[in-house]
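Provenance and format

Records in this collection were gathered into a single text stream. Each protein contributes a sequence line and a token line. The two records reproduced below are adjacent in the stream.
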Amino acid sequence: TFTGQETVDLDVFEPTATLALNAAHITIQRASVMPESGGAAVPLTVSLDSTRETATFTAPGFSGQRLSVSL
């Protein structure tokens, strides 16, 4: 068992309120998103699906921008 932090850079081309990533055998305690344009980090709601091995992150609207998601 280990702990750590990771940042994932994403390009979002169409408006969406959710982002889904592969999350096999991972426990995510918190996540936030930082828009490339700057400003404060926005906390994300995380929903894990162990059957699909995914994590779905929800926040108020992502659209047409590059994002950095910190886990």
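Adjacent record:
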Amino acid sequence: GTTVRPVSLARTGPLAVEALAVGPDGTAWVLAAGGEVLRVDGGQLRTIDRLPGLTDTRVNAAMVDRAGRLW
């Protein structure tokens, strides 16, 4: 089954999610408006300023391949 655990976001204001992807290891990637990238792994939240290779802050979709790479 699926386990759902709350994660506290240390931020103020709303988070406008543009895409969400979950990898084979259960790591969740949240891509938000303005290019903000959040990684939720084992209940730990990490903010990544910007992913290498992104040329724009708009995201239409996201996926994680079998090797755990975010596309």
